[in-house]
Design a protein that fits this description.
about 70 residues; mainly alpha; about 85% helix; elongated
Length: about 70
C-alpha cells in the first residue's frame, strides 16, 4: 500500500471516529437534557469536523489513490 493511500485510509478512519464521538456527544446531551444552544453548537462543530475530514480523505484518495 502506497504512503498516500495509507494516509487517506487514516483520514477516513479519523472521520468515523469523530462521527462516533459526535453521536455519543449528541446522545449524552439528550440524556442530560442539555438541549441548549451550546449542545447544538457542539454537535454542529463535530459534524463540520467529520465532513472536513471526509473531504480531505477523498481528496487524498483522488490525488494519490490507486488510479495514479
Amino acid at each position: 500500500m502506497v504512503k498516500y493511500q495509507r494516509e487517506a485510509l487514516y483520514e477516513a478512519s479519523y472521520a468515523f471516529i469523530i462521527f462516533a464521538l459526535a453521536a455519543v456527544a449528541w446522545g449524552v446531551s439528550n440524556l442530560v437534557a442539555l438541549g441548549t444552544v451550546v449542545a447544538y453548537w457542539f454537535a454542529a462543530m463535530l459534524v463540520f469536523l467529520v465532513s472536513l475530514t471526509c473531504i480531505t480523505g477523498l481528496i487524498h484518495y483522488w490525488r494519490y489513490g490507486i488510479h495514479k
